[in-house]
Amino acid sequence: MWVTRALFAVVAVVVSATAAAADITLFIGSTTSPANRPARGFAVGAGLLVIGFEFEYSSSSEDAEAGAPSLRTGMGNVLLQTPGPIAGIQPYFTTGAGGYREQLGAGSTTHVGVNTGGGAKISLVGPLRARIDYRVFRLNGSPLANVVHRLYAGANLSF
Q: According to the model, what pLDDT value does residue 15 have?
């Protein structure tokens, strides 16, 4: 009896399994804390149904007049997303951790931080999607700004 149940469970898992999906995003946007300045970067990710993982690199330029440092982040993130697009839109929530380097003039800080945010991948044509994303970074150590906000739009290619 238990052999039949185990066999049924294995068959159910194999039949319901979906192929893993991967994507890459190139983005531009704005880091808004402590002052607006350009941000650009990329993200590479993979996912299975509702859970995804990505690595993201971002670089924001310095604005010395406003006292806003340059900021480079490298974060590993976990995404919780809908299993597929709903009316062409796939919303997601993300959280992660990684390192950052902040620099203003001759001073710099390198440490770790965490981020939380969300966004949507919007179907365009074939595997090409637009991606809109908002993140809040909490930077540890002694940064000039402990909390940094970033908003971006990008081109996302699913494969």
A: 47
